[in-house]
Amino acid sequence: MPDARRAGAHGQDPRAPAAAAYHRLGRSESRRCHPERGDRGVKKRYLVLASGEVFEGLAFGAEGEGLGELVFTTNMCGYPETLTDPSYAGQIILQTFPLIGNYGMIPEDYEGECLARGYVVREACDFPSNFRCQGTLDAFLKERGVPGIMGVDTREITRILREEGVTNALICNEVPTDLSRVRAYAVRGAVAAASVKAPEEASCKRERFRVALIDYGAKHNIVRELNKRGCHVTVLPHDTPAGEVLLGGYDGAMLSNGPGDPADNAFEIAQIREIMGRLPVFGICLGHQLMALAQGGTTVKLKYGHRGANQPVRDLLGERTLITSQNHGYAVETDGVPGVLRFVNANDGTFEGVDYPALNAFSVQFHPEACAGPQDTEGLFDRFIAMMGGNAYADA
C-alpha cells in the first residue's frame, strides 16, 4: 500500500517549500500500473498543488510541465470525449475513475481539440482492447504535448478539491521551491483559443433550417445533433458581430459551451444582447451563462464545479428529474435574470436552466448533446427546432 501521508497537510504553513514531503509510490504499485516495464525506464513525476502539497507518481504522456487549474470529473467512461472537450482549456483534468485508457483512443469520438494542460489518473492502461481503437492514451497525450501523471492517490486529491475547492497545480519532473507562478496562474483568453478562426459549414441531407452556431469552444456533437434534425450549421467565430448573424439568413442561433470565466467575455455578451429577441436562441453551458449576463444576470464560481455524466437536474415545469452530463465551474445566480427558472441541480440547488419566453430563447447549464453520457435531455434540440417552426415539440 502506498504511504497515505501527503505534503502540506492541514496545519502546515502553505508557504513552506513544496519539497518538504510528498506522497511516495511503492515499487509494487509501479509494476501494477505498467507490468511490462517493472521499475526500469519509468520516470518519476510530481503533481504540486498551489498550497504546497506534493504527490509523487509516474510520468506518462508528453515531456515537460503542465500548469493549470486542477479539476476533477466523475465520468466512468468517455475519456476520449473528455480530453477533447474544449471547455477544459487551461485546466488539468483528474479522473476519479481508477482505470483510464482501457479501450484506447477513437478519433471518431473526439469532440474537438485537446486544450487541457495536464492529465491525472490512478492507473493508465497500456494495452487497450477495442475494435475501434486507433492508438493508446499515452500516445495521444504525447502527440498533443499534454503531460500526464499516474499512480497518485486520485481519491485523496479529489477529497482535497471537494473540501478546499479547485486549485492551481503543476505537473513537473522536479519539485520547485517557489510556487508563486503556480498560485498566480489564471485561465485567460480560453474562448479565443477554443473557437474557430473562420466560419465553417456543416451540411446535412434534407436541410430545413440554417443555424448559426457561435463557437466559444463547441463540441462536435452539438453539430451532429443539429444535422440529424435537418439543420445546416454555420459555425461562427466567438467574436462574430451581431449584425453578421442577424443579416446572415439564419433561422436560429445556437450559443455553444466553452471554457473560462463567463464574465471575461464582454464583447460576446454585448453581441448576444443584440441577437436575443430577434432570432430564436438556444444556449448551452457557457452559452447559457453568457445569455444570463446579457440579460442583467450575474455568475459565480463554484467551489469545485459540476463535472461528470451523472448530475441529477429537476425540471420545475415538467415535474421530473433528469440525469445530465455537465462540465462547468461557474453558475448563474438565480437573482436578477428576467426569465423563468426551468431547471435546478438536485444536489446543490444551483441554477441549471432558464426560459426567456418573451425573447423566444432558452438556455441550459448541462449538455443535452452529451456523448458519452445520458440522453435524457436530447429533446431540447427538438424544442429549438420547434422554435424555428419545425415541429410540435415547442413546449418539450
UniProtKB/TrEMBL annotation:
Pathway: Pyrimidine metabolism; UMP biosynthesis via de novo pathway; (S)-dihydroorotate from bicarbonate: step 1/3; Amino-acid biosynthesis; L-arginine biosynthesis; carbamoyl phosphate from bicarbonate: step 1/1. The keyword Hydrolase does not apply. Residues 1-211 are annotated as: CPSase. Pfam families: CPSase_sm_chain, GATase. PANTHER family: CARBAMOYL-PHOSPHATE SYNTHASE SMALL CHAIN, MULTIFUNCTIONAL TRYPTOPHAN BIOSYNTHESIS PROTEIN-RELATED. The lineage of its organism: Bacteria, Bacillati, Bacillota, Clostridia, Candidatus Pullichristensenella. It comes from the Bacteria. The active site is at C285 (nucleophile), H367, E369. It comes from Candidatus Pullichristensenella stercorigallinarum. One of its GO terms (molecular function) is ATP binding. PROSITE patterns: GATASE_TYPE_1 (PS51273). Gene3D superfamilies: 3.40.50.880, Carbamoyl-phosphate synthase small subunit, N-terminal domain. SUPFAM superfamilies: Carbamoyl phosphate synthetase, small subunit N-terminal domain, Class I glutamine amidotransferase-like. One of its GO terms (biological process) is L-arginine biosynthetic process. Its EC number is 6.3.5.5. Small subunit of the glutamine-dependent carbamoyl phosphate synthetase (CPSase). CPSase catalyzes the formation of carbamoyl phosphate from the ammonia moiety of glutamine, carbonate, and phosphate donated by ATP, constituting the first step of 2 biosynthetic pathways, one leading to arginine and/or urea and the other to pyrimidine nucleotides. The small subunit (glutamine amidotransferase) binds and cleaves glutamine to supply the large subunit with the substrate ammonia. The keyword NAD does not apply. This is Carbamoyl phosphate synthase small chain. Composed of two chains; the small (or glutamine) chain promotes the hydrolysis of glutamine to ammonia, which is used by the large (or ammonia) chain to synthesize carbamoyl phosphate. Tetramer of heterodimers (alpha,beta)4. It catalyses: hydrogencarbonate + L-glutamine + 2 ATP + H2O = carbamoyl phosphate + L-glutamate + 2 ADP + phosphate + 2 H(+); L-glutamine + H2O = L-glutamate + NH4(+). Belongs to the CarA family. Residues 43-172 form the Carbamoyl-phosphate synthase small subunit N-terminal domain. Keywords: Amino-acid biosynthesis, Arginine biosynthesis, ATP-binding, Glutamine amidotransferase, Ligase, Nucleotide-binding, Pyrimidine biosynthesis. L-glutamine binds at S87, G258, G260, L286, Q289, N327, G329, Y330.
